[in-house]
Design goal:
The chain has 2 domains: 58 residues, no CATH class; 150 residues, 3-Layer(aba) Sandwich (Glutaredoxin). It has 7 helices and 9 strands; from the N terminus they run αββββαβααβαβαββα. 25% of the residues are buried.
Length: 220
């Protein structure tokens, strides 16, 4: 390694450290974040007395708080429950720190695309204070038959509680406007506040759902 290269390397490291300190001073405090600063010393790579060790300061800013999106509604006028002895959403909420509510129907391809992600969520966090409630709101008449729902749920591996919203009253009340979505997923915390609300079956949505549940449970 040439002496000139080592000098340029040391200078670059020093500039990076100064830039990190400046960012923390000018930007981090203004944003109200609590920054965590770590310091690393890079030793000199030569015996030349003109090349000295440099210090790199790296700043890590914590993620933004998970915002409150509103107060969650309840589930009313249901035609029953499957996979649980509970008889209301309030009963399930009272027994858990977080409740994931997904509106779905078993014949919906987009809904099926989410079930592996929900299964992983259920496996990883079911024993840590989280429950999933699948609100089954049928799009077609064959999806309203309870025997068909039971058979489909078993085949699809849906083992979490299912609320039977046959007439889609809750489906439309929870989703204001003229359009309702299959699937749509919410996270409700212990204060009945909505902390996550997404529609569709995108992979990024369900990765973010997992991260949200993980973070909220860690904050409890």
């Amino acid at each position: 390694m040439s002496l000139s290269f080592v000098r340029y390397l040391a200078l670059g490291v020093l500039v990076a450290g100064v830039a990190a300190i400046a960012w923390t001073t000018l930007g981090g405090d203004e944003a109200g974040d609590v920054a965590v600063t770590t310091t690393t010393t890079v030793p000199d790579a030569t015996d030349d007395p003109d090349v000295t060790a440099s210090t790199v300061v790296a700043t890590t800013v914590p993620p933004e708080p998970i915002e409150v999106l509103g107060t969650a509604d309840t589930l009313t006028n249901l035609d029953g429950w499957l996979n649980t002895d509970a008889t209301s959403l309030e009963e399930i909420r009272a027994a858990n720190q977080l409740t994931v509510v997904q509106f779905w129907t078993f014949g919906c391809r987009n809904c099926k695309n989410t079930l592996d992600a929900l299964g992983r969520l259920y496996t990883d966090f079911r024993g840590q204070g989280m429950e999933i409630v699948g609100v089954h709101s049928p799009e077609f008449s064959y999806e309203a038959d309870v025997d068909n729902i039971i058979e489909a749920a078993a085949g699809l591996g849906v083992v979490w509680p299912i609320a039977l919203d046959t007439d889609k009253r809750n489906f439309h009340r929870w989703q204001e406007g003229n359009i309702g979505y299959w699937p749509r997923v919410y996270v409700i915390d212990g204060d009945n506040q909505i902390r996550f609300d997404r529609k569709g079956d995108g992979r990024a949505t369900y990765e973010q759902l997992y991260e949200t549940v993980e973070r909220l449970l860690a904050e409890v």
